[in-house]
Amino acid sequence: MADQFQRHHHEDWHTPKGRAIREIIFGMNDGLVTTIGFLAGVTGSISQGRYILLAGMAEVVAGAVSMGIGAYLATKSQQEFFDSEIEQEKWEIEKMPEKEAEEIRDIYGKMGFTPSEQDMIVNRVTSDKELLLRFMKREELGIIDEHRDDPVQVALTMGGSFFVGCVPPILPYFFLSDPHSAIMVAILFSVVFLFLAGAAKTRLTKVKPLRSGLETMILGILASIVGYGLGWLAEKLI
Hints:
Elements: H1 2-8, H2 16-19, H3 21-43, H4 49-95, H5 97-110, H6 115-125, H7 129-139, H8 151-170, H9 179-200, H10 202-205, H11 209-237
């Protein structure tokens, strides 16, 4: 019973490691799908494996850098928006304390607290401006300081995950000289990697590994098919 309690109350999900699963899965899946689509496209038009490998490596580096920069800018923009909301809240606390008190009453009123209980909470929270700011950030703005992501860390996670996702499809080109054999092995590696990545994330998500692995694998295959199909269509039309 104690072991079961510990499994269901594992704290990983509440840590940055747990929350980073979004960036990790997105980055790896995007890296794998992008790379397998790119390699499948160039394999049909380039006959020499070393040129395909060079082109693939360039795509991997460019993609990882692009993903990292994009993640950095997106996270930094979000943090700047949060900061502007917090500054507005500080202004309201200084200039409109009555409005803040009414907002606290409204929040706890919706939660079923009686008017006397609301007054007690308002008196306690508004007695300290720092406490009031922390309260309003959490309850009104939905901003939790412990959950705010570091743009640099998110960028490194996203770019690194993209790079890891690129490894399975490009790896066969290091060892196989025949491009068509390499792309077949690359597809096989990618399918296996997608399943294993989906199953591995269940350590944090607590869902069934088989179901999660199959879901990740199938969605990744579908995305790869769409990407390859669009590339094939563009080549035929142009």
